[in-house]
Design the sequence.
């Protein structure tokens, strides 16, 4: 089988996980990476054992050995880099959020559809086997009609005021921080599992740490800080938010996000309550799905190929009791993406769970509606798309 040539632009925190995941697929060749300068690209290329390095992403896009480009740059570069990939007629995998705002998100969705290529946004929690199990149970009516969808996505890596990341800089991260970075994951997962769309929101946002201290370099996610000469930086974007939700199937919901909550590492939880039963999944205990009932004992369904539904089996790689993890779910998402790429991105060949630029655009609309709701003093706002 001829290998597919892959190139990556933006070798920061998540880039190594993209490279690791595609290497594990076996039929993808990591051809090159592009960074902000030739020197930094070469350093990263050595680290990731990639042969070619480009200091200019346009040169990487023009490389004839590359058919698919992963965009893992900070948010403000999503639009120019991804548009250039689409203009070159190449397949594209973009990190979330798809763009800085809904206007940019729409541009990218339209350009992707017009380019007739595969376009994927990394809402990677969809790749977890028990997420797919929960989605199937809701879709088959096992939960009964949903009345409530709730949860949270909490982290602590921004609790230290010495963490100043591009996410806090509106020019690079956009007007939002926690909602765009991790609220986008939660809402995508909630809609994906519930099989329903959020139609209106009421949001309350807060900036717990309004002044951060920058060393000049953008802090990587989850990496601790060290001393040095630091400049105070005013931060206006939210690092904490709570949102009430209404869904198009009549369900109500709510979720909170925060990145300044000590002890919460990557604590994403989603619970759906149907009239017949409830389901709860937590990212940090991702090998179990809680099933809650009123008239029978509650139980924890283990991620075990002999216990999950048949259509979930491609997402499970190890027997029960053998824990699978974030990286395995990430690889599942990219496996689906490359399956679509092998089909040349034909819309009818897209694997059903795979998130596209349509989902990425939708997410930018949801976050924008939440910002609007908060700015209006905490008012119900309809999602416009
Ligand atoms: C940082 O908050 C981050 O890396 C997110 O950007 C990812 O999308 C999430 O999966 C883990 O946390």
Sequence:
């Amino acid at each position: 089988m001829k290998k597919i040539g892959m190139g990556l632009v933006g070798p920061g925190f998540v880039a190594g996980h993209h490279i690791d995941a595609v290497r594990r697929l076996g039929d993808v060749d990591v051809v090159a990476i592009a960074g902000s300068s030739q020197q930094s690209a070469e350093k990263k290329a050595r680290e990731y054992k990639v042969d070619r390095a480009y200091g200019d992403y346009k040169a990487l896009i023009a490389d004839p050995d590359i058919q698919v480009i992963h965009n893992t740059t900070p948010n403000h570069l999503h639009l120019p880099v991804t548009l250039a990939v689409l203009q070159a007629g190449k397949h594209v995998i973009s990190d979330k959020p798809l763009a800085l705002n809904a206007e940019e998100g729409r541009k990218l969705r339209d350009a992707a559809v017009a380019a007739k290529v595969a376009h994927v946004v990394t809402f990677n929690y969809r790749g977890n086997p028990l997420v797919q199990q929960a989605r199937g149970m809701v879709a088959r009516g096992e939960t009964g009609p949903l009345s409530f969808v709730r949860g949270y996505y909490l982290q602590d890596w921004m609790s230290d005021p010495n963490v100043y990341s591009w996410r806090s800089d509106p020019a690079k991260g956009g007007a939002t921080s926690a909602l765009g970075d991790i609220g986008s994951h939660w809402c995508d997962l909630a809609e994906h599992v519930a099989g329903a769309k959020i139609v209106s929101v009421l949001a309350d946002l807060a900036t717990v740490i309004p002044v951060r201290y920058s060393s000049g370099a953008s802090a990587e996610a989850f990496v601790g800080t060290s001393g040095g000469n630091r400049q105070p930086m005013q931060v206006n974007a939210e690092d904490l938010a709570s949102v009430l939700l209404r869904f198009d199937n009549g369900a109500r919901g709510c979720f909170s996000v925060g990145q300044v909550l000590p002890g919460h590492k990557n604590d994403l939880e989603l619970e759906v309550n149907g009239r017949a039963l409830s389901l709860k999944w937590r990212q940090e205990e991702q090998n179990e799905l809680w099933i809650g009932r009123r008239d029978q004992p509650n139980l924890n369904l283990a991620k075990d190929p002999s216990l999950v539904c048949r259509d979930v089996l491609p997402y499970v790689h190890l027997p029960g009791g053998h824990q699978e993890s974030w990286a395995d779910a990430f690889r599942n998402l990219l496996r689906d993406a490359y399956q679509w790429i092998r089909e040349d991105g034909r819309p009818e060949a897209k694997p059903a769970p795979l998130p596209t630029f349509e989902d990425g655009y939708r997410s930018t609309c949801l976050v924008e509606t939440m910002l609007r709701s908060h700015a209006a003093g905490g008012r119900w706002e309809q999602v416009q798309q």
